[in-house]
Amino acid sequence: MKIEDLGKKIDLLTELKPNDFMPLPYPYDNLAGEPPIKRLTHDQKERYEASLDGIVAIGIPKPKDPEEEEVFVRKFLSGLEKLLTPENNWTFLQPLYHSLEYCVKCQICNDSCPAYIASGRKEIYRPTYRPEILRRIINKYIKKKPSFLLKLTGSDIELNWQLVARLGELAYRCTLCRKCAQVCPLGVDNGLVSHEIRKIFSQELGIAPRELHELGTMQQLKAGSSTGITSKALGNIIEFMEDEIEEKTGKKIKIPVDKEGAEILLIHNAGEFISWPENTEAFAIIFDAAGIDWTLSSELAGYDAVNYGVWYDDVQLARIAIRHAEIAKALKVKKINVGECGHAHKAMIVVADRVLTGELNIPRESALPVLAEIVLNDRIKLDPSRNSFPVTLHDPCNMVRLMGIVEPQRKILRKICPQFMEMEPHGVENYCCGGGSGFAIMQSMNFPDWRSAVSGRMKLKQILEVFKDVIDPDIKKYVCAPCSNCKGQIRDLFAFYNVFERCNILYGGLVELIVNAMVDIKKPFIEWEWR
Amino acid sequence: MNTFLAVFTYLAYAFIIVAYTVKIIKYLKMPIHLRWELYPVIHENAYHYGGLRFESKKWWLSPRPRRLFRALKYLLKDYLYFETYLKKDMIYWFFLYLSHMGFILLMFFQVVTILGAILSLNGIQVDRSSPFLSGWLVYILMQFSGFISFLTGIAGNLGLFILRRTRLDLRIYTTPLMYFGYWFHILLSFAGFFAWFYEGYDFSWYRKFWEGLFTLKFTSLTLCNAFFVFLMALHLIYLPFTRAIHYITRLFAFFMIRWDDEPNIKGSELEKRLTEQLNYRINWSAPHIMTGKTWKDQVQENG
What is the per-residue pLDDT across A39-97, written as a single tens digit (0 to 9) for each? Predict the structure, then answer.
């Protein structure tokens, strides 16, 4: 396959065949038994661009006529031009410039990409592929280099709407885990290029996965949460949580909401309230037992830490970050504490740091060091024998590789889980769960199958390898994933491969394990059932 | 001919200095970007596994650590023996190392030659029997760096060319300009090698050529030497069209992007710059963006 093939007018550029996929360990070592990736219907193929690899992540509608095709290409070029200007893209211009200008295409980064390896090394997923396409388009259509220079720099690429649409889809085959960037000796970040391509589509063409934009950031800013939970609904959820805590633990806890002047404003990924309420309940139980002065917020967007803007749109990123800071300021809290959500950590604590100026620059920290301090200083009584089952830890990329938070979660697990074992590689060299950069919530057509079979495959391999000596389904096992999106991905990954039934591996957060070990709670907090 | 080569060399040096200065200024003058660091961040207290700052409660109260020496040591490891390549792809590393050794020693050869010319013009004898240590050392270094540079330049670039042609993952990403680069280096190295072989092993003719450039009394060169001088100058003109400046931009990328964890502190110079940038006007035209308004205005609205 050649680079310029991305614009080829064919029905399918790359076919995904299970036989090409990276093999998995026992009991998934027979590729013939691989669950199939759903094929798109004829109608879906007719309506949406699906010729990259037969998968649809965004759902770019096919243009009706050549005129629409031309408008589409023109808008893309106009967006690309803006991407290279300081006014429109001061946010990432320098890192983008570096990655476009100084990659020597040595391919040293290739083996770091879990999607590329898992797919059986499909060319289109190679970390250097997307940047090379973008580089060639820039040379020819933005810098307008003369034709002899284009030939010399290998930039003679023909732009058509197929190429642009496939490039848009391709930006959603990279989880932005940035493991490729980590190994580059020249400081090139090919993951960032995917991020920047997504921005052209969102900020110029108005095209982004529905779950990230319309149901994500837009809904969060208008209704309060990407889950659709309104302030009023939050009240009911909190009542439900208080009842359930009492039922499960016998503890009567009043969850503080909108408490002015509290030490900590705790913001969860609102997906926890719906899919894993035991996580938010566990936080309430721990903070209550440790005597932490904390509060939740019921303000619009104040109860949802997610900031999907960090994956596809800088304007949306800034809007949500500012909203979070304004809420904390109005509540006069001392700091914001982010619950078990990786991308919210990265967006709120790190990336947004440079849009929060003046009084909005409120201290923001991760929940993990706070939890570690509680557990390691024995501020609550814990009995590790209650967690006497094999436990492994998934490192969310956003917390670990992108923030350096490696040890607090491990210190907790070493103290409360006697059978804690590490996956390889782990820490800053971890592999993405396969649901990073919004994939975990994207449910478009057959995309969820792709993220299980391809982008999540390396994580499944790691989990099966770490548990290989205890893989017997009679032995309970637990994957601790202190991140909502990672949990969502692991849930879907396990469901796709039937992992809970075949291997008895459950997944969940960190706080659930802490509460499960609390001596003053009689019943096990972790209910060993599939969710 | 002699005058042409002299003028061409002057121009080549002027060109590379201007071109690299423009490139560096362009890089450094770009706006402050959002934080996008990657861990381990070298100056962090726990850099051996990641970082300590965000692992600490109230991290914003502790000063940001600075460890320039550790950072330079880390970068130097890759400069000296390309540690990442050595670990991940030994065959590629071998030829890459040779070719870079060829390039670095070629630059070094230039520097010591110029130094030799300056010493000689100041009355210091530059040869094997020089009573001055500096003269003797420069003489030895010129021979050593020149010879090794030509040898490694040929082997390394030829090896890389073959790898790039035969390995599919490299071939489809290699541009004609990159192939040209390999052959150009091979040709230059051969020219140097022949000059060394036929015109005396000590390169005294090249030092004298440089003395002539300083005194404006241009020396005459044999065809073989003239060809080498011409290619050396052409090489300098060619370099700004390649990614060779990555020797420098790599430093920028590590210090200004990968390890840039400078927090935005109230009242700081950084905050001042960011506030200015938030006043930039946006021209993005998606429906949720208010085209023509500033970043500051945008973020006050919900799209």
Answer: 999 999 999 999 999 999 999 999 999 999 999 999 999 999 999 999 999 999 999 99
How high is the ipTM of this complex? 0.94
Side-chain half-sphere exposure of A92, counting CA atoms within 13 A: 27
Question: How close does chain A come to B188, measured CA to CA in Å?
Answer: 20
Measured between alpha carbons, how far is residue A366 from residues A335, A342, A374, A403, A483 in Å?
A: 10, 9, 14, 10, 12
Alpha-carbon distance B163 to nearest alpha carbon in chain A (angstroms) = 11
Look at residues A508, A493, A464, A526 and name the one whose alpha carbon lies nearest to residue A28: A464
Distances (CA, A) of A334 to A108, A189, A256, A319, A329: 45, 35, 15, 22, 9
Look at B176 and A98 and tell me if their CB atoms are within 8 Å. Answer: no
Query: Which pTM value belongs to this model?
Result: 0.96
A111, B81, B152, B233 from B78: Cα distances, Å: 19, 5, 18, 28
Domains of chain B: which residue ranges?
Answer: 2-31+67-258, 269-302
Minimal Cα distance from A80: which residue of B?
Answer: B284
Q: What is the CATH number of domain B2-31+67-258?
A: 1.20.950
Show Cβ contacts of residue A462 under 8 Å, excluding neighbours closer than 6 positions.
A423, A424, A431
Q: How many helices (H) and strands (E) are present in chain B, helices listed first?
A: 12, 0
Sequence-distant (≥ 6) Cβ neighbours of residue A33 within 8 angstroms? none
Nearest to A181 by CA among A189, A173, A192: A189
Q: Least CB-CB distance to B299: which of A78, A202, A319?
A: A319
